[in-house]
Amino acid sequence: MTHPPAHGHVPSRAADRLRKDCTEIELIWIEKRLEHWIRFGRIASERIVSRKTRIVSFRPDAIVAFVRWSANDFGTVHSRIDILRAVRPGESYTTAPFVRPGGELLLSIQGWPKVRKVLETIDSIEAEGLDACDVAPEHWRHAHNRLSAGEPARAYTAERHQAWLKRKALGQ
User: Fold this and answer.
1) Residues 35/29, Cβ–Cβ less than 8 Å
2) Cis peptide before 101, with omega less than 30 degrees from 0?
3) pTM (2 d.p.)
4) Which of 18, 21, 20, 23 lies closest to 104 in space, CA to CA?
5) Domain boundaries in the chain?
6) Cα separation of 51 and 164, whole Å?
7) Three-state DSSP string of the chain
8) Which domain of life is it from (predicted)?
9) At residue 14, does pLDDT exceed 80?
10) Least packed by Cβ within 10 Å: which of 81, 119, 142, 163?
11) d(CA 45, CA 5)
């Protein structure tokens, strides 16, 4: 026999289907110790697990930036940013910690100096008046390759974005 959840809300079939099709990311916030946050991405739904943990869901094809940071008494231990595309059911994907089932990794950078460069890249895109969620996936791959090699990424301009939108409209 199944019982409704303790809070009395019974999820609808539509909500179950949405959750099944979505990519979920677990966000954790333990002040000055462990922080997981979304830098950009269109959240489809959110579940609060505890005061320190929540799970956010993204629809297939959504582009999202997921930042993870941890520290100990002596300072930062780990920092990482992943920019990924939420996959459709049945698509292949790369697994990533705290991401279920996983996603198509467009950029994955570790180490605070490089993570900071990615955050500055996102800031410069937004300064152009563009939404980072809509940037061409190829740009994030380019940024990953350049920053991994210690080189600056090419700027993503409104002109480049218009070219991407035209290619996308043509289905390329």
Assistant:
1) yes
2) yes
3) 0.86
4) 23
5) 16-170
6) 41
7) CCCCCCCCCCCCHHHHHHHHHCEEEEEEEECCCEEEEEEECCCCEEEECCCCEEEEEECCCCEEEEEEEEEECCEEEEEEEEEEEECCCCCCCEEECCEEEEEEEEEEEECHHHHHHHHHHHHHHHHCCCCHHHCCHHHHHHHHHHHHCCCCCCCCCHHHHHHHHHHHHCCC
8) Bacteria
9) no
10) 163
11) 18
**pLDDT tens profile 66-125:** 999 999 989 889 999 999 999 999 999 999 999 999 999 999 999 999 999 999 999 999
Tokens for 150, please give them.
């210690």
Q: Which pLDDT score is estimated for 20?
A: 75
Q: Please tell me the distance from the alpha carbon of residue 46 to that of residue 57, in angstroms, as a whole number.
A: 6
* pLDDT band at 172; cut points 50, 70, 90: low
Residue linked to tokens 């920092």: 79
* Chain length of the chain: 172
Give residue 18's pLDDT band: very low, low, confident or very high (50, 70, 90).
low
